[in-house]
Every structure is written in C-alpha cells, then in structure tokens.
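User: quick one, fold this
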Amino acid sequence: MNVEEAKATLRRVDRKNYPELHAYSDEAIWKDSGGPGGLYLAAKMSRELNLREGDVVLDLGCGLGESSVFLAKHFGLQVIAVDLWHETVLLHEKFTRRGFRSRIVPLNLDARRPLPFAEGYFDAVFCMNALSFFGGDVESLRRLTKYLRQGGVFCAGGECMSKEFSPEQLANPPEVYSFVEGIWENDFLRLHSPAWWERLFKDSGVLEAKKCGELDDGVILHEEKILAKSPEGYLGLSPAQAQEIEMRQILYGREHEPHMTVFIIAASKK
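Assistant:
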C-alpha cells in the first residue's frame, strides 16, 4: 500500500464531540500544533480542570501558545505560558495580535529546574504534549506540583503508547519507532502508556488521579493530523518522508501493539 492508498483509509474526528470548536476551521484547530491532538486535545483537557473565570493557570510547555489562547478565550483565565524552546518576544507578539496581551504572560523557563513561582500559586496546571520531556519521574512531578494550590487540578495529555513495550521490543525496537538515530531513546521510550502515567502520579504521593486513559478517538487524532495539517520535515526528514513514516506508524499500529494514541490524566493535589 502506497502513501496515497493508505491516506484513503484514514478517519476524521467526529466534530459533534467537540462543541467548543464548532466555529473553528481545520487550520485553526491544527495551527502551530507540535503534537497529535491540536485543539481537540486542549478542549478535552480543559473539561477536567474545574475552571472559574479569573483563575490563574500554568500552561506548562505551551509551545507556540495556541493552547494558552484557547484557555484565555474560552474561560476568562489569567494564563502563565511557559516554554523552553520558543522566544517570549514571538509569543508576546502572537498574544497581543490575538487580543490577549493582558491575559497571557509568556515566560522562557526550563521546567526541569525550579520555577520562579510561589508555592500554591496556580489554580490549575495544564500540560499538553510536553510532560514526557521533563516530568517523567516522581521527583520532577512533586517539584512541579508544589506550584499548584491544594485541591487544584494537574491535567496532562498528549501522545502515548497504548501499552509498554515488551522485553523483545526493548531489545529489538520496531523500525517504525526507531527510524532515525536517537528517536527511540529520546522520544518513544519516554511516551509510556496511560497505566504507566497513572502509577507515576500515584507514586508521587501528592496527586490523586481522577481520570486517566486513552481517548476514544486517540488513534483518530493521529490520523486526522495527517489529513488536516500540511506535512512538516523534522530530524533530517523531508516533509514527504516524515508523512510517510507517520503513515507507516499508523498502519503498524493497526496490527501490532503497542500502537500510538493520545491520553489524558487529570489529578487533584492532596
């Protein structure tokens, strides 16, 4: 099956399940999205936060800031948008241009180190397509949670694997998950399964998971990303090569475990 034949088998998300996005185009939903889910994922995550107008939310690993705009626009929040890789000047210009200059504060910070916030400062922590890069151990999770008020919600979501890799796969990684040097160690081995993340939150001792699992349309989010978003090159791959490997990953996941999907975990601070 070639790429075009494979694309004909891809599915799209049922927009009826996302009333928050009824006025959004495909372009707006997937704009500047660094991972699977786009604003579909932001919408589902936001439902878990118990937000009230005026709450202060930490958008941790905000990327290019589309999630921050979504939160400020729909909930009337004060958002602190933290990212390591994107310049605050560019984020500030975007937030100003979109009319949220006074509602979103961009900061260039490394979440692997202590952050300059008071303990218990935030009403919620929102972390989309980012936690695997800096919060995949108990010590880091405890450190990040100290900035959340008691009873506040820590919600993370993003790309994951449906199950943990088997010993055989760890010894001989599937080629679709190890297609360039370093991607296996630095990406796929960090994604983990929803069950793994739920155990980590429990082991932290400071968070009580209220919801955790693969989204019903988690696989479809990967599929729609290919259909709705222009392909982008990365890690030395051209856009066409990158799209081909993403298609191969989806086809592999239809017949093998673990498959790539999307999950959400929402937990309250004890």
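User: anything notable?
Assistant: The mean pLDDT is 95.
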